[in-house]
């Protein structure tokens, strides 16, 4: 998301909250229940001053105790109605808030899952998580508690004003004249609260993003004695969030003080007039009492409304941040009329004059006219110095990004013309940094095929040389492996990833060999697992091991985003070019199993 757009102020203060309206209409039952119970509660409250007037003007002067009994029984009934209506209001309104925010969270998450790699190149995951949690919570309190208070006070305020007019049109006209004086400044304050609150949420998200990163990397932080600097960086992020939140709160306090002074000030002024009318006998004491209660209701609810306005403005800041995610358009989307890929899949891959620069680094071309073709069933090794563009080839094939120029074809079809889901069905990847989810071993292997049977998962694990170690775990395939698979060794994680790819059984395998050295036994096991996986399918492997290049049908040597040499190990060694240099480096350093990543000058 373009960051500069984030700060664009919307013209109207609480407009971003309109996002929740479609959700509101989805739950009409709850919304109607809330509205009805709100109305009943407010109407009941409004009848109380009527009773007070009757008591003052008639009740105490009348010695008929029957009248008093009926009167107080009625009041008791009213109290029970008020209590029940308030309880129902609370239930409906809070449930509605929870319901809407659950839906909103789900929709925002679903949208985030669809976004392209380029989005995540520039946005931090912790920042996004903060939107899903902190911002959504603010909206929940706005929709739930705040909206309920707002509606109740709005009804109460309008009702009280109506009753004021009914009680004394003369005094009411004075009150009504004061209202614009109060409302307009309130709206202005509300806008400033929204802006500040948005800033506070941005700051909080930045702090969360940093916390997420640091917590995920505690081992590295500790290894480098970085606790102190991490602590102080997080501390200042939190401090900045606090300052921004305080600024928002300050704006809200000013708003509240202003509102209460104005509202009660005008009530006092009006009553002053009223008191003179009573003295002049043109108004009964009971009527002034009734008017007084209604104006206190009206003033109280206006005061509450001003506070609610502050809260709604704050929630609008949060809604704005969620809207940005909801409105984010994935860069890679299925075409409107996707071309069907040929069936059965053959596993052919072709790059034709592909040029590409990462969106986060538009001036640097990672691929510069890359062309090659891989026949169905062929095993092709890609080698080259660090930064040559090897991993980029995989990202392009998986269509994380689209090329600036040129065409990529899978099974003869341009990848841009097909549904990305159909394309990715045909590809299985074993990345260098294996992703393990904090769930069971079974679910990790079955990640691409969630309905796979236990037998199928087991068969894949056996083929990936993983069954034995899984059997030794506490609960076998049901063992939870911890976040990012922390309870597993590097080799074990890799074999789980291989089992995942075996289970997916896609016609094209993308393999990014791990550079990290495994112990000899793990190495042999991983190698065996890969041999199984590579059988009978097209394999593109970013190779770091001699064994792998020796086994490949063909080796592509990449440098600066294009192919510079091509052939078998022997023919390339004979050519004496870049490959020969890379290979020599490896032998010179005696690391038989590893390709050295960059062709540094050979030391004498
Ligand atoms: N997400 C990204 N955003 C911007 N630039 C990137 C991104 N990923 C890679 N690059 C750049 O693109 C170039 C090619 O990177 P790539 O990862 O494809 O290299 P590689 O050959 O796989 O290197 P290595 O062997 O070190 O993994 C590098 O210069 C790298 O800095």
TrEMBL record:
GO biological process, one term: oligopeptide export from mitochondrion
Domain spans labelled ABC transmembrane type-1: 32-314
A molecular-function term among this protein's GO annotations: ATP binding
GO cellular component, one term: plasma membrane
Transmembrane domains' residue ranges: 30-51, 71-92, 149-168, 174-193, 253-275
Superkingdom per UniProt: Bacteria
Bilayer topology term: Multi-pass membrane protein
Subcellular locations according to the entry: Cell membrane
Boundaries of every ABC transporter domain copy: 349-585
Keywords for this protein: ATP-binding, Membrane, Nucleotide-binding, Transmembrane, Transmembrane helix
Pfam families: ABC_membrane (PF00664), ABC_tran (PF00005)
Primary subcellular site in the record, as a coarse category: membrane
Annotated function: Part of an ABC transporter complex. Transmembrane domains (TMD) form a pore in the inner membrane and the ATP-binding domain (NBD) is responsible for energy generation.
Protein name per its UniProtKB record: Probable ABC transporter ATP-binding transmembrane protein
Source species taxonomy: Bacteria, Pseudomonadati, Pseudomonadota, Alphaproteobacteria, Hyphomicrobiales
């Amino acid at each position: 998301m373009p960051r500069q757009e984030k700060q664009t102020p919307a013209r109207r203060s609480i407009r971003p909250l309109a996002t929740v309206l479609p959700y509101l209409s989805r739950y009409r039952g709850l919304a109607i229940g809330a509205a009805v119970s709100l109305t009943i509660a407010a109407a009941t409250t409004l009848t109380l001053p009527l009773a007070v007037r009757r008591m003052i003007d008639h009740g105490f002067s009348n010695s008929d105790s029957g009248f008093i009994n009926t009167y107080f029984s009625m009041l008791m009934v009213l109290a029970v109605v008020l209590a029940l209506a308030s309880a129902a209001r609370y239930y409906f309104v809070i449930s509605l808030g929870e319901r809407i925010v659950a839906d909103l969270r789900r929709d925002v998450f679903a949208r985030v899952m669809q976004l392209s790699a380029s989005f995540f190149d520039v946005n931090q995951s912790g920042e996004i998580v903060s939107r899903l949690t902190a911002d959504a919570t603010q909206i929940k309190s706005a929709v739930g508690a705040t909206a309920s208070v707002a509606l109740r006070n709005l009804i109460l305020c309008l009702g009280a004003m109506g009753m004021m007019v009914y009680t004394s049109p003369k005094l009411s006209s004075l009150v009504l004249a004061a209202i614009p004086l109060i409302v307009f400044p309130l709206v202005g304050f509300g806008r400033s609260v929204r802006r500040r609150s948005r800033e506070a949420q941005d700051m909080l998200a930045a702090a969360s993003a940093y916390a997420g990163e640091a917590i995920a990397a505690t081992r590295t932080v500790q290894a480098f004695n970085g606790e102190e600097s991490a602590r102080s960086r997080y501390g200042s992020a939190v401090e900045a969030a606090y300052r921004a939140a305080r600024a928002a709160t300050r704006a809200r306090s000013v708003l509240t003080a202003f509102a209460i002074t104005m509202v009660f000030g005008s009530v006092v002024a009006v009553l002053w007039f009223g008191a003179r009318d009573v003295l002049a006998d043109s108004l009964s004491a009971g009527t002034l009492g009734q008017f007084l209660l209604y104006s206190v209701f009206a003033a109280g609810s206006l005061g509450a409304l001003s506070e609610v306005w502050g809260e709604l403005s704050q929630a609008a800041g949060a809604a704005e941040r969620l809207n940005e995610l909801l409105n984010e358009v994935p860069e890679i989307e299925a075409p409107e009329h996707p071309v069907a890929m040929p069936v059965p899949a053959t596993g052919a891959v072709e790059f034709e004059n592909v040029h590409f620069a990462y969106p986060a680094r538009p001036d640097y071309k990672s691929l510069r006219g890359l062309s090659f073709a891989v026949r169905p069933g062929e095993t092709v090794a890609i080698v080259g110095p660090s930064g040559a563009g090897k991993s980029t080839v995989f990202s392009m094939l998986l269509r994380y990004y689209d090329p600036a120029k040129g065409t990529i074809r899978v099974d003869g079809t341009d990848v841009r013309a097909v549904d990305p889901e159909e394309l990715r069905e045909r590809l299985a990847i074993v990345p260098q940094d294996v992703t393990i989810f904090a769930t069971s071993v079974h679910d990790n292997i079955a990640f691409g095929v969630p309905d796979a049977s236990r037998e199928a998962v087991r068969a894949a694990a056996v083929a990936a040389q993983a069954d034995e170690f899984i059997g030794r775990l506490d609960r076998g395939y049901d063992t939870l492996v911890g976040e990012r698979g922390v309870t597993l060794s590097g080799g074990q994680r890799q074999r789980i990833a291989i089992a995942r790819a075996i289970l997916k059984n896609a016609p094209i395998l993308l393999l990014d060999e791990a550079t990290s050295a495994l112990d000899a036994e793990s190495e042999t096991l991983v190698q065996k697992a890969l041999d199984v996986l590579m059988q009978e399918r097209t394999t593109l492997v970013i190779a770091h091991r001699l064994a792998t290049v020796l086994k490949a049908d063909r080796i592509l040597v990449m440098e600066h985003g294009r192919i510079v040499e091509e052939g078998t190990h022997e023919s390339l060694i004979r050519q004496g070019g870049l490959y020969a240099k890379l290979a020599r480096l490896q032998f010179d350093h005696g690391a038989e199993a590893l390709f050295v990543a960059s062709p540094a000058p050979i030391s004498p």
